[in-house]
Amino acid sequence: MCSRRLEATSWRSTVSTLSYLTWDQLNVSPFNVVAWHGNYTPYKYNLENFMVINAVAYDHADPSIFTVLTAKSLRPGVAIADFVIFPPRWGVADKTFRPPYYHRNCMSEFMGLIKGHYEAKEGGFLPGGGSLHSTMTPHGPDAECFEKASKAKLVPERIADGTMAFMFESSLSMAVTKWGLKTSHCLDDNYYKCWEPLKSHFTPNSRSPAGPK
Ligand SMILES: O=C(O)Cc1cc(O)ccc1O
Ligand SMILES: [Fe+2]
Questions:
Q1: 8-26 burial: b if 16+ Cβ within 10 Å, else e
Q2: Does the C-beta of 113 come closer than 6 Å to ligand 1?
Q3: Is 188 part of a structural domain of the chain?
Q4: Where's the Homogentisate 1,2-dioxygenase C-terminal domain (predicted)?
């Protein structure tokens, strides 16, 4: 399931957020068809019922632990797409920066917010919005989240109450349609600004007095 070890095949970078329209607004529905081909059947599942697991010692576990559905490829351990959720849960990890770490990886990440506030971008990512971080594009929490989490006392805390965010994580590249980029007028040209206030705290000679054992 953890496809992050796959070597990069593409260095094309895209970071963008957009708002998408609901089936109602588009006036279509995946259920409004005469028949579905073969064994495919539309199925509605309440994501609130999915029981996620998480780190109980230290460190931020790869989000593939939150995989609800996976579409396997022919390469073992490399998914065509994992469907992952970020539901309400407890955060208890010690000695850890608890929000998503800053990273770039070989997978393309398309995220969406159904309701609430995504923990890594409380203000800038609205319900009905989506973001695409393509293969090897660096990304992570916004500046506000970084500052808050860096100073927070690591007591057990609720994360994402009232929230449902999801991600399609794919070993393939995704392209945004012309409709999404232009015609819809829904592209957030200012998305990158959520990282602009980040300050450098890099102190090359500092050592943690008591790192994880
Ligand atoms: O980028 C994101 O916000 C999604 C994400 C969440 C997380 O907890 C760790 C890695 C990751 O890509
Ligand atoms: Fe990510």
A1: eeeeeeeebbbbeeeeeee
A2: no
A3: yes
A4: 49-202
Domain housing 163:
10-21+52-195
Residue nearest ligand 1's atom 6 by CA? 100
133 in a structural domain: yes
Residues assigned a catalytic role = 60
Task: Give binding residues as ranges.
Answer: 103, 109, 118, 139
When divided into structural domains, the chain yields a total of 1
Given the CA of residue 133, which atom of ligand 1 is nearest to it? 1
- ipTM given for this complex: 0.96
> Annotated binding residues for Fe cation, as ranges?
103, 109, 139
In a domain, 35, yes or no: no
pLDDT along the chain (213 residues), means of 10: 32 55 70 76 86 94 94 92 96 95 94 90 85 94 94 96 96 92 90 92 80 56
The Cα–Cα gap between 139 and 17 comes to 12
209 within some domain: no
Residue 111 CA to ligand 1 centre (angstroms): 9
CATH of the domain at 123: 2.60.120.10
Ligand 1 close to Cβ of residue 167 (< 6 A): yes
Answer whether 98 contacts ligand 1 (Cβ < 6 A): no
With contact defined as beta carbons under 8 Å apart, do 149 and 98 qualify? yes
